[in-house]
């Protein structure tokens, strides 16, 4: 990371991208917990409400946004994609609308605290706990162009599972189970031989490490019972969200200055 012509843009880009990826890593568990709460309180009224809102979104909001997009594209001189059939559009719009409404209900249920152990405090704690490791790891990856920054941020990223364990009362076993793959994720993230201007290679390497770790963890549970079965599905959701975050997040444009253009390697 270089603090040259645009230090604020450089820092802002690194932090924004890191937050983006971190939130994606926390999102699957957040949604899952919300679904568990919402299903326990789902009623016929909730179903009808979802259908009604879905109809409004499918037949009014989505067509309106699509018309605005076509208008902007037309005036911009860009070629517009071929229009879809009405049946396909309605089915696709209804599907996305219903999924959006149901997810919104699930997230709202978790945040509002429909059960004694949920609420805004628990939701914030869950998000912070799950986002801490991916956030620190991404900052470390994007800071690797400077040796001192790489050492400091990399060390902090490797130790972040233990910091999360201390802040959020994880068991020592859970902290170690997170710290072991995190060490290799940080290490392989420092590789120079990775893709340019995107996180695709990082997503692939993270997937490989996650699969190998989950396989080892499952074997460990079978042999020694040191790794709990419930952790497997939790870790699976965590790494799946992390990988999606790497695929969805943009690479920060202002991370390096022109002096270091030869070293502009994406993580």
| Mean residue pLDDT | 77
Secondary-structure element series: HHHHHHHH
Strands, count: 0
Query: What's the overall geometry?
Result: globular
| Overall SS class | mainly alpha
Helix content: over 70%
- Terminal Cα span: 12 Å
Oligomer: single chain
Biggest β-sheet: count, sense, barrel?
none
Ranges where pLDDT stays below 50 over 5 or more residues in a row are: 256-266
Produce a short descriptive summary.
By secondary structure, the protein is mainly alpha-helical. It contains eight helices and no strands.
Task: Explain the layout of strands and helices.
Blueprint: H1 7-39, H2 44-75, H3 86-112, H4 120-142, H5 147-168, H6 172-189, H7 200-223, H8 229-248
Helix pairs in contact: 1-3, 1-4, 1-8, 2-3, 4-5, 4-6, 5-6, 6-7, 7-8
Report on the architecture of this protein.
By secondary structure, the protein is mainly α. The chain has a domain at 7-41 and 114-263. Helix content is 75%, strand content 0%. It has eight helices and no strands. It has helices at 7-39, 44-75, 86-112, 120-142, 147-168, 172-189, 200-223, 229-248. α1 (7-39) crosses α3 (86-112). The radius of gyration is 22 Å and the shape is globular. The two termini are 12 Å apart. The model is unreliable at 256-266 (pLDDT under 50).
């Amino acid at each position: 990371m270089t603090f040259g012509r645009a230090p604020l843009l450089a820092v802002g880009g690194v932090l924004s991208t890191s937050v983006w990826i971190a939130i994606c890593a926390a999102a699957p568990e957040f949604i899952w917990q919300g679904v568990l709460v919402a299903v326990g309180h789902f009623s016929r009224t909730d179903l009808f409400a979802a259908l009604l809102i879905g109809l409004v979104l499918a037949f009014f909001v989505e067509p309106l946004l699509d018309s605005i997009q076509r208008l902007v594209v037309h005036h911009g001189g860009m070629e517009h994609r071929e229009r879809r059939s009405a049946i396909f559009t309605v089915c696709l719009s209804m599907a996305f609308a219903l999924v959006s409404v149901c997810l919104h209900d699930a997230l709202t249920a978790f945040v509002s605290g429909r059960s004694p152990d949920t609420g805004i405090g628990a939701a914030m704690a869950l998000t912070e706990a799950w986002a801490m490791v991916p956030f620190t790891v991404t900052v470390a990856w994007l800071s690797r162009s400077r040796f001192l920054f790489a050492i400091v941020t990399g060390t902090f990223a490797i130790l972040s599972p233990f910091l999360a364990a201390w802040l959020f009362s994880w068991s020592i076993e859970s902290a170690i189970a997170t710290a072991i793959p995190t060490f290799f994720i940080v290490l392989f993230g420092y590789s120079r031989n990775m893709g340019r201007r995107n996180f695709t290679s990082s997503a692939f390497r993270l997937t490989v490490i996650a699969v190998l770790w989950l396989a080892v963890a499952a074997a460990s549970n079978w042999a020694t019972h040191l790794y709990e079965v419930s952790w497997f599905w939790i870790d699976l959701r965590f790494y799946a969200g992390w990988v999606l975050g790497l695929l969805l997040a943009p690479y920060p444009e202002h991370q390096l200055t022109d002096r270091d253009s030869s070293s502009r390697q994406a993580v």
